Amino acid sequence: MRIFFLIALILLGPAHGSAAAAETYELLFHSAALKGLEAEKAGNGDPQGSLVYDKVVSGVDSGERSGRFAVGLKVQAGDNVSMTLYQGSQSRGLGNYPRSVGNPLIMYFLESVLSDLAAQSGGSPFYMRNRIKEALLRDAQIEPVTLRYNDREIAAREVTIRLFEHDKAREKMGRVADLSLAVTVSEDVPGWYFSLVATIPSAADSSGAGYSHAITLRASGSNASGEDQP
């Protein structure tokens, strides 16, 4: 997973963006996203240091990409964060990251979506990464929303970015041009991110299926249930 580009993007920040772009950047790459999570002690599966997210992907030709998954995040000693992808009885490490960059889930989400689209359309992931950088220097759609988490109502904000809305090559990109990213965040949610969703609507004539890549936080304190679990 090539997320080093995105880590560099986080560290650089929106140096030449507007005030609105700076707000978008801070909401998406919140450096204090893991505040309140403590490193797990050896031999103690402390839930205060771990998070579990459900991941559901549809509309991708490759069977390895589509399906239901779980993503486990653990804060390790030494201010490192590890992530693991689970599907059924199989698991795969997604790497270790410095806690200083915030919650690495956002980087994993973006790179996964770009990889899906590159495999689906044959487009260049490098071109798409550059569009992410440009999109962060523009104003995004930010709306206050209310979500339900752990049986209570929580105030949150939803950040929506349409990567290719102003792209010069939009007409040549087919339905990928309509890709939208919606990230819902809240200080009252552990790990900052409640959901990260990428969507491409289905064709108007129903000749092609839409695309969806959604990652959603599971309720804290509840053991992961179902076949995809840490």
Structural notes for this entry:
The protein has a nine-stranded antiparallel beta sheet, with helices on one face. The protein has helices at 4-12, 19-28, 105-121, 125-136; strands at residues 50-58, 67-76, 80-87, 90-98, 141-149, 152-161, 180-185, 193-200, 211-217. Mean pLDDT is 81; it is low at 223-227. It is globular and about 50 Å long. It contains four helices and nine strands. The longest helix has 17 residues, at 105-121. Strand 2 and strand 3 form a beta hairpin. By secondary structure, the protein is of the alpha+beta class.
Question: Keywords for this structure?
Answer:
230 residues; alpha+beta; 9-stranded antiparallel beta sheet; 4 helices; 9 strands; 21% helix; globular
Strand content: 25-35%
N- and C-termini, Cα separation: 20 Å
**SSE order:** HHEEEEHHEEEEE
Q: Would you tell me the structural class of the helices and strands?
A: alpha+beta
Shape: globular
Sheet with the most strands, sense and barrel status? 9 strands, antiparallel
What does this entry show, briefly?
The chain is of the alpha+beta class. It contains four helices and nine strands; from the N terminus they run H-H-E-E-E-E-H-H-E-E-E-E-E.
Q: What's the arrangement of secondary structure elements?
A:
Elements: H1 4-12, H2 19-28, E1 50-58, E2 67-76, E3 80-87, E4 90-98, H3 105-121, H4 125-136, E5 141-149, E6 152-161, E7 180-185, E8 193-200, E9 211-217
Antiparallel strand pairs: 1-2, 1-9, 2-3, 3-4, 5-6, 6-7, 7-8, 8-9
